[in-house]
Amino acid sequence: MIMADTTVTDSLDPAQAEASKSWLSRLYTGTGAFEVIGRRRFYYMLTGVIVLIALLSIAVRGFTFGIDFEGGTRVQFPAADNVSTSQVETVYSQALGQDPVSVQTVGSGAGATVQIRSEALDQGQASTLQAALFDAFKPVNSGGTPTADAISFTDVSETWGGQITQKALIALAVFLVLVSIYISIRYERDMAIAGIAALFFDILVTAGVYSLVGFEVTPATVIGLLTILGFSLYDSVVVFDKVEENTRGILHLNRRTYAEQANLAVNQTLMRSINTTLISVLPVLALMIVAVWLLGVGTLKDLALIQLVGILVGAYSSIFFATPLVVTLKEKWGPVAAHTKKVLARRAGADSGAQRVPVAAGGAAAIKSEPVREAARAPQAGARPTGKRAKRRR
User: Fold this and answer.
1) What sequence ranges are listed for the domain Protein export membrane protein SecD/SecF C-terminal (predicted)?
2) How far apart are CA 246 and CA 265, in angstroms?
3) The domain 72-156: what is its CATH number?
4) d(Cα 81, Cα 84) in Å, to the nearest integer?
C-alpha cells in the first residue's frame, strides 16, 4: 500500500502529495472520515433525481422489445463481403413495400450473418423476400454454393415472450419474499425494509438505463436483471453486517450515536465494496468487448449491458441509499431515537457548561490548560510506574 501511495503522489508537489496520501490512507483504513450518513439528505436527493430520470425515460421512450416478446419473423443469411445493413433495408423495402423492424450484422469474418427482424410474414411475402435477397447478395451455404436455401425464416410468437415475463415476475416475487424473511430473521425489520427498497431502486434504475440506451429487451435481459439482484443484496448485507457489529450495545453507551457508528461501518466496508465492484465489472467489460464488438453476438450484448449497469447501481444503493435509510428508520422511533436525543443533549449540555465558566474563576485559563493537564496526567513513554500503580502491576 505504501508503494501505491508513492506511485500516485510522485508527480505532485509536497502539499498535494500529503493530501493524496491522507485521502488514500483514510479510504483504505476506514477511519470514518468520509461522511455518508451525515449527508444522507443529499444522497436521498441524488437518489430521487436518478429515479425521476429513469421513470421519465420509461414513460416517454418506453422499451424496445425484441422479437421474442412482440412476435414476428426473423430472417437470417450469411453476409457476403461489403454487405451493409442499409443495402439490406433497401432490398427489403423494395420487395415488400414496407420497412423492416431492424437489420443488424452479427459476427465477423466468414462467420458473419445478417439478421432481419420484421413483422410476421405470410408464405407469399417470405418467398418474394427470399428471391429478392438471393438476387441481390447471392448468399452461399456451408459448402460454398450460392443458393436461396441459405436464407432462413423463423416465425416467433409473442406468447413465448409473455410466458417468460410471467415466470420472471413470479421468480422475482418469490425472491423478494425470501429475502425479506431472511434479513428480518438474520438482522432486523428496518434492515429488511432498506434492503428491499434498495433492490427496487436497482431494478428501476437499471430498467431506466436500458430504456435510455434503447437496447432490445430480450429473454437474456430478463435473466440478467434477476442475476444482478443477487449482487446488490450481497453488497447490502455486507454493510448491514458491519453496522450490526458496530452498533451492538450502543444503547448502553453515551459517547456516540447509532448514526455515527453506522457511518463508521460504511467507511470500513467502502474499500471492500469498491474492490468487489471493480472485480465484478472487469469480466463484464471483457464480455462486452470480446463477445459484442469482436464477435458481434447480440444476445451477449443484452446480458453484458444489464449486468454492467446493475453492478454499478447495486454498489451505489448499498452504500448511499440502503444504509442511510436504515439509520433514518431507526431514528424515527424506538430506543435508538431516544438514545440519539440523549447523546446529543448530553453533548449540548457539556458544550454550554464549558462556555458558562467565568473567566475570573479561571474559565479561559482552565479550558486552555486542560490539554496540558491531560498531558501531565498521561504516563510518559518508557517511564516506570510508581506508587499505587506500581503495586497494582506487581
Assistant:
1) 147-331
2) 7
3) 3.30.70.260
4) 9
